[in-house]
Amino acid sequence: MRSICKIILIILLNFGFLLNLKALTIKPTIVEITASPKETISGVYSIKNDSGNPVTISVEPETFYGAGINKWLKLEPGLFTLQPGEEKKVKYNVNLPEDFKDEYSAKIFFTQNPVTDTAVGAAIVTRLGSSFYVSALGKEIISTEIKYFSIHNSQDLKLSVTMINDGNVHLRFFYDLVFFKDGVQVHKTDKKPLTVIIPGRDRSVDLPLPLKKILLPGKYQAVINLYYGNIKPYENKLSGMTDFEVKE
Question: pTM for this one?
Answer without folding.
Answer: 0.84
